[in-house]
Structure formats: C-alpha cells, structure tokens
Amino acid sequence: MATRLLLLRLFPRAVRATAPASIRAMSAGGIPTDEEQATGLELKSMQALKRGEDPYNVLKPKKYPGTREEPHIVPSIGDKRLVGCICEEDNSTIIWFWVHKGDSHRCPQCGSYYKLTHYELPH
Ligand SMILES: [Zn+2]
C-alpha cells in the first residue's frame, strides 16, 4: 500500500493506467442506487410501485371512515372473509362477523360499514 502511494505520488499517470478495471469503474460511477442493485421480487415490487400499483401490500392501507358511502375495504381472494371490528379504540373485545361479496355489511356493535373487494394474488 505504501509503495503504491509512493509510486502514485512520483508517477501518477503510470500508476493510474495500471490500476485494475474494477477500481476505476467504482471510483468513476459512484454508489449504485437501490434500483440498480435490486433483483427478483424486490425489483418487481419497485417497478410496480413506480406504476402506482401495490401488488405485495408494501404500502400502508388507505383508511376509510366506515360510513355507508365510504365503507372499510376488505380485500379477499374468495367470496367471504371473517372481519374483526374493534369498535372503539380502548375496547378490549373484538366483534367478529363475516363479510360476504356484494353489498356492504354493518358491524352489529358500532355500525361501521365493511365492503368486500376481490383481491388478485400477484403470483
Ligand atoms: Zn364495530
């Protein structure tokens, strides 16, 4: 290392010309971005997020008020799904009920509306 630094100081052009290609490429190109390093599922997920899609549920789900006009959305791959409603923030009990495909369903305790939407698995 010390010899290389001494030679670089004395003959800078000669030493740089003999440096390995990998060292020159890294010093010239900088640090690769996440998109340049991503492969496989991570790359597919990043490309989908750029298109505005979220096939792997990476993002936080959107919140709905739970009214008749804007019910809570319940994604499902089938025709029904079991839903647990914590009606109030401090409740220690969960009200369980089935939400079926079609019209929105109402929680029997608090009255919030839930609607089932079809969810297609990405793979
Ligand atoms: Zn409820």
UniProtKB/TrEMBL annotation:
<dbReference type="GO" id="GO:0005743">
    <property type="term" value="C:mitochondrial inner membrane"/>
</dbReference>
<keyword id="KW-0479">Metal-binding</keyword>
<feature type="binding site">
    <location>
        <position position="110"/>
    </location>
    <ligand>
        <name>Zn(2+)</name>
    </ligand>
</feature>
<keyword id="KW-0496">Mitochondrion</keyword>
<keyword id="KW-0472">Membrane</keyword>
<protein>
    <recommendedName>
        <fullName>Cytochrome c oxidase subunit 5B, mitochondrial</fullName>
    </recommendedName>
</protein>
<feature type="binding site">
    <location>
        <position position="107"/>
    </location>
    <ligand>
        <name>Zn(2+)</name>
    </ligand>
</feature>
<dbReference type="GO" id="GO:0006123">
    <property type="term" value="P:mitochondrial electron transport, cytochrome c to oxygen"/>
</dbReference>
<feature type="signal peptide">
    <location>
        <begin position="1"/>
        <end position="17"/>
    </location>
</feature>
<dbReference type="GO" id="GO:0045277">
    <property type="term" value="C:respiratory chain complex IV"/>
</dbReference>
<keyword id="KW-0732">Signal</keyword>
<feature type="modified residue" description="N6-acetyllysine">
    <location>
        <position position="115"/>
    </location>
</feature>
<keyword id="KW-0862">Zinc</keyword>
<feature type="modified residue" description="N6-acetyllysine">
    <location>
        <position position="62"/>
    </location>
</feature>
<keyword id="KW-0809">Transit peptide</keyword>
<feature type="modified residue" description="N6-acetyllysine">
    <location>
        <position position="80"/>
    </location>
</feature>
<feature type="binding site">
    <location>
        <position position="87"/>
    </location>
    <ligand>
        <name>Zn(2+)</name>
    </ligand>
</feature>
<keyword id="KW-0999">Mitochondrion inner membrane</keyword>
<dbReference type="InterPro" id="IPR002124">
    <property type="entry name" value="Cyt_c_oxidase_su5b"/>
</dbReference>
<dbReference type="GO" id="GO:0046872">
    <property type="term" value="F:metal ion binding"/>
</dbReference>
<feature type="binding site">
    <location>
        <position position="85"/>
    </location>
    <ligand>
        <name>Zn(2+)</name>
    </ligand>
</feature>
<dbReference type="InterPro" id="IPR036972">
    <property type="entry name" value="Cyt_c_oxidase_su5b_sf"/>
</dbReference>
<dbReference type="Pfam" id="PF01215">
    <property type="entry name" value="COX5B"/>
</dbReference>
<keyword id="KW-0007">Acetylation</keyword>
